[in-house]
Design a protein that fits this description.
The protein is mainly α and 478 residues long. α10 packs across α13, α14 runs parallel beside α16 and α16 runs antiparallel to α18. About 6% of the residues have low confidence. It has a two-stranded parallel sheet with strand order 1-2. The protein is built from 21 helices and two strands.
Length: 478
């Protein structure tokens, strides 16, 4: 559709030579909390937004055309979506819902498999510049519907954006999505995820984090006929809804990234405690106690103890529900420890705490302080390579976008030419049939169509009388 809009004023041969590129001042804060100002690649970013392709359309008109295109053909092209994303600098805040609707429509299009990194990157940066980055969190959670799978560079910028505003809750939620995708391989985004989760843990109230107590629904149940009963399934990963569990599992994953260090052991212990995996938590403490030079911070025990005290106890004598009444909450309830198990965990935790203290393996420093120190010391080391990659990707995306647009213009012109040829062929065929009809009119009149029924001839009076006599003789013989 972008091609149809642009083809009226440009051709594929002149795209690269267009002058008077659209330019707009982009408001980017010069203040940085963890990442330097250079990480945002402001000059390269402005240059990418000045692509001549974008100057040929206006956002509002283009979005309406995209919607109409989807309603007619159930498809939006990748180059259309990319142009729309880069024009979001013109958006009004009231347009956000309409834009998100277009993003979901695009996700259902064949061209969105997969969604290009350039589209996701631009959407994230535009939302940040319009100060509506918090709207990205639901889009990331519904990634299968929206296609918002951020790359490490955009996700780092997004977390840094929230950290700058001291919005550690949203920054931690971005880190949760990294954990769910099980991708903590990029050093910059991993360090920012660590910082976000640790700062949020310090800021949050344990009472607010504690999962809501699972209770049976009161009232009379309503039974309806169904073909089959689906047994509820809880995968303990994608199905996690509790904020405490998400934070705990993220800290545990981060701890595995810094294995064999005091910080790594502490993160795993605290994370497993918040995640209510107390058996695994105690096992990590045992491994630290048996290891030669491993150690753990003193404050980890307070987090585990608080999580254990606030954990809901499962009633082992609770009667089983009927199959049709089971929900996913019942599956989560089965994973909870009983009151007796909680008492055993408390005793083992105190014993391990005393053992580690006696062996001098408890470091009198907060693991949160270790995490912040690590982030501050290592983050700057990874910035130069990230900046270089981002700048290179801007250039690559521009070349790919131009190529896609040229291909779309070519296909549009080809389809228009084919439609024109087919129209002329049809007109010629109709004219030929008309001319041939008059030429062969006499022959057509003489030809008796075989499929027409023969004309019925009525019998005369004598024939009818003979037939009646024949019928009477036949009846007489019977």
């Amino acid at each position: 559709m972008a091609a149809s809009f642009l083809a009226r004023c440009v051709t594929s041969n002149t795209i690269r030579s267009l002058a008077g590129a659209y330019r707009r001042t982009v408001n980017v804060s010069c203040k940085r909390y963890l990442l330097s100002q250079a990480y945002s690649c402001t000059e390269a970013w402005k240059k990418s937004l000045a692509d001549p392709i974008f100057s040929q359309v206006t956002l509002n008109e283009f979005m309406i055309q995209m919607r109409d295109q989807y309603e007619k053909h159930s498809s939006i092209s990748a180059v259309d979506m990319e142009i729309c994303a880069n024009k979001l600098q013109e958006m009004d805040l009231d347009d956000a819902s309409f834009i998100e609707e277009l993003i979901m429509k695009f996700r259902r299009s064949p061209a969105a498999n997969p969604v290009r990194d350039s589209i996701v990157y631009v959407i994230i940066r535009m939302y940040m510049e319009h100060n509506i980055a918090d709207r990205l969190i639901p889009l990331m959670k519904q990634r299968s519907v929206t296609g918002i799978f951020p790359d490490p560079y955009s996700i780092s910028l997004l977390m840094d954006h929230f950290i700058l505003k001291e919005d550690f809750h949203h920054a931690a939620q971005v880190a949760y999505e990294m954990m769910i995708q099980e991708d903590l391989s990029h050093p910059t985004s991993r360090l920012l995820a660590l910082y976000s989760c640790v700062k949020f843990l310090k800021q949050a109230n344990m009472d607010d984090l504690t999962p809501a107590e699972i209770k049976d629904e009161e009232g009379e149940e309503e039974w309806i006929p169904v073909r089959y009963i689906k047994y509820p399934s809880y995968d303990d990963h994608f199905d996690i809804k509790s904020e405490q569990y998400l934070l705990g599992k993220t800290l545990y994953f981060l701890g595995k990234e810094y294995a064999d260090t005091t910080l790594g052991h502490s993160l795993k212990v605290v994370g497993l405690g918040l995640y209510h995996k107390f058996k695994h938590c105690l096992q990590v403490l045992k491994d630290v106690a048996e290891s030669g030079d491993a150690s753990i911070t003193a404050d980890t025990f307070s987090y585990v103890e608080a999580s254990l005290d606030k954990a809901q106890a499962r009633d082992p004598n609770k009667p089983e529900k009927e199959m049709g009444l089971l929900t996913i909450d019942d599956e989560i309830y089965k994973l909870l420890p009983t009151e007796e198990e909680k008492d055993v965990f408390r005793q083992q935790l105190q014993q391990l705490k005393q053992m580690l203290t006696d062996k001098g393996k408890v470091v009198n420093v907060a693991f949160t302080a270790l995490a912040e120190e690590l982030v501050q010391s290592q983050l700057s080391q990874h910035e130069p390579s990230d900046i270089e990659i981002q700048v290179r990707r801007f250039d690559e995306w521009q070349e790919e976008r131009t190529k896609l647009l040229e291909e779309q213009i070519f296909m549009l012109q080809r389809n228009e030419k084919m439609a024109e040829i087919n129209k002329k062929l049809k007109e010629l065929q109709e004219k030929e049939e008309t001319l041939r009809f008059f030429e062969l009119n006499d022959e057509i009149r003489l030809i008796q169509p075989k499929h027409l029924p023969k004309e019925k001839v009525e019998d005369d009076e004598e024939t009818l009388r003979a037939k009646r006599i024949k019928r009477r003789k036949f009846r007489h013989n019977i």
